[in-house]
Amino acid sequence: MIIVTGAAGFIASNLIKRLNNDGFKHIIAVDKFDNPVKNTNLEGLIIQEKVDRNIFFEWIQKQTAEIEFIFHIGARTDTTEFDKELLFKLNTEYTQKIWNICIEKQIPLIYASSAATYGLGELGYKDDEALIPQLKPLNPYGDSKNEFDIWALKQSQKPFFWAGLKFFNVYGPGEYHKGRMASVILHAHKQIQETGAMKLFRSHNPNYKDGQQMRDFVYVKDVVDVMVWLMHHRKNSGIYNLGSGTARTFLDLVKAVFKSMGKPEKISFIDTPADIRDKYQYFTEADMDKLQKIGYKNPFTPLEEGVQDYVSQIKA
Predict the structure, then answer these.
(1) Catalytic (active-site) positions
(2) Where is the active site (predicted)?
(3) H-helix or E-strand containing 310?
């Protein structure tokens, strides 16, 4: 059995699809399963059992079958959520419980961290574990992820293999339920389809021109490739960046969407919402040396190629 938490979500549902394609059919899907739109991500996938996240720990204690791996992708991922108690419960504490289960039952673990832990990038974007306690996330979501990373590194007991993955700006099919938190590509496709134009956030940082804010956009297929590779590798435990390794501008991204849709470019700028303006990352770029040094050699999908593939799936 392979357990995948956050199963109906964006990244996890893509992971389950890949596992199915690789011949893994005994998938235990853990989630809240209360969002009908989100649940459509699981249609057509082979799943042995669905387990509500609130009874997961009771369920796993009763299992006698061998659990081969846990992918803990589930989390409260809204970067505008300011309920610190809720974020601690769902992101930090829940992951601590899974960690301890993996020690008790000798199960290897991959869990989702986040590039939001890097804050403004004052210390760069290198996944050096010695720097993690010094990071300053810009929001409670980033804090909740960083708190677990710090906790995990301090533990004297650890799963025999574990990896925390700092996801950068992941995009791809299966994110339509995320609303405001969906990738700019999905928002751009919708706006362009409806209005023939796209509005981007204006820069409020004198070091960046409008549209020149840069992020490390990584295609979900590449993210899944890394997770599956680590599942088979099962060596070199630790915390790893997971981005493309190349920062690109939002203008690059939106122009690629226009091109993929066969539409003429029409781009304007609006103020960044006040509630996120002082928490906005103007630049992120994953340093991918650490993952490559342990043997991961697959290339990452160039932005234009990934956008073209994604837009073709949206059209379909």
Answers:
(1) 141, 178
(2) 141, 178
(3) helix 303-315
Strand order in the sheet with 2-5: 49-52, 27-31, 2-5, 69-72, 109-114, 162-167, 238-242
- The CATH class that applies to domain 2-170+217-244+285-300 reads alpha beta
pLDDT of residue 278: 83
Q: Which residues of 32-150 form beta strands (DSSP E)?
A: 49-52, 69-72, 109-114
Enter the pTM of the model.
0.95
What does the pLDDT average to over 170-195?
92
Write down the CATH number for the domain with range 173-214+247-282+305-315.
Answer: 3.90.25.10
A 10 A CB-CB count for 274 gives 7
| Binding-site annotation: residue ranges for NADP(+) | 10-11, 31-32, 38, 53, 73-77, 145, 170, 178
- The DSSP letter of residue 66 is P
Q: List pLDDT tens digits, range 47-88.
A: 999 999 999 999 999 998 899 999 999 998 887 788 999 999
pLDDT at position 80: 76
Give the rounded percent of residues in the chain with a pLDDT score beyond 70: 100
Residue ranges per domain, the chain? 2-170+217-244+285-300, 173-214+247-282+305-315
Binding-site annotation, residues: 10-11, 31-32, 38, 53, 73-77, 145, 169-170, 178, 180, 187, 201-204, 215, 280
Task: State the virtual CA torsion across 13, 18, 20, 24 in degrees, nearest 10.
Answer: -110
Q: Longest Cα pair distance anywhere in the chain, in angstroms?
A: 59
Per-residue pLDDT of 219-263, as tens digits, reads 999 999 999 999 999 999 999 999 999 999 999 999 999 999 999
Compute the half-sphere exposure of residue 153: CA atoms within 13 Å on the CB side of its CA.
Answer: 18
Using left for φ > 0, alpha for ψ between -120 and 50, and beta otherwise, residue 241 falls in beta
